[in-house]
Amino acid sequence: MSQFHEKSPEHCAKRGLNVKKFNKKLFFAFSTFLLTVLSFILLVWLILHPTKPQFSLKEVEINQLNLSGPSLLNSSVQLTLLSNNPNKKVGIYYDELQVHASYKGQTITPDTSIPPFYQEPEETNLLSASLVGNQQPVAPSFGYDVGRDQRTRKLVLTIKVTGKLQWKVGTWVSGKYRLNVNCVAIMAFGPIPSPPLSSKQGTRCSTTI
């Protein structure tokens, strides 16, 4: 005859307690491992201390800037940007880059995309974009402002670049950070009001992340 052993409630309670202890040990082990990995990444980050990229305007040319109505503008701006990664051991991924031109706070071209790219440490890249606006809405004072700039023979154009970047250290890639670049081009505005106008002074841009 087989014997039937019935476990007491006390035995079951002890077994349940052991399972809880095992789960706690597993949780603490995983937490310790995760904390170690995060601390290592933070340590690498602090040691390398990545510096934000540097942008400058190499050339800007306005080929068209004509009002087709009281508040509608046709514009064409060709520009060349220099992007430099000053870091010695940190690469940069650029993505979702958009660029447009503005004049006295008014956007005069729609956003134009710049293809994503990867920048090696201490690498410099040449970025070109053609900004074309058709029937772009502007303020009624636009024509007056341009005429006044013609009399002073100086036109100030702002180039704005937005997008996202990621730092790359070895095989580790950071999360995405918002990138904002503002460049100011001061262009000689001669006695003839029609474009083209150009600037080749290599203006340094401000960059925020």
Summarize the structure.
This protein is an alpha+beta fold and 209 residues long.
What does this protein look like?
- The chain is of the alpha+beta class and 209 residues long.
- The chain contains 2 helices and 13 strands.
- The strands form 2 sheets. Strands 3, 4, 5, 6, 8, 9, 10 and 13 form an 8-stranded antiparallel β-sheet that branches.
- β1 (54-69) and β2 form a beta hairpin.
- The longest helix has 40 residues, at 9-48.
- The mean pLDDT is 84.
Note the topology.
Blueprint: H1 9-48, E1 54-69, E2 72-84, E3 91-103, E4 106-107, E5 112-114, E6 117-119, E7 124-137, H2 142-152, E8 154-169, E9 172-173, E10 177-188, E11 197-199, E12 203-204, E13 206-208
Antiparallel strand pairs: 1-2, 1-11, 1-12, 2-7, 3-4, 3-5, 3-6, 3-8, 8-9, 8-10, 10-13
Organism: Abeliophyllum distichum
Keywords: Membrane, Transmembrane, Transmembrane helix
Protein name: Late
Order of helices and strands: HEEEEEEEHEEEEEE
Percentage beta strand: over 45%
Estimate nothing, just give the exact number of structural domains. Answer: 2
- How large is the radius of gyration? 30 Å
What oligomeric state do these chains adopt?
A: single chain
Output the CATH class name of the largest domain: Mainly Beta
The total strand number stands at 13
Mean pLDDT: 84
Q: Based on CA inertia axes, which overall geometry fits?
A: elongated
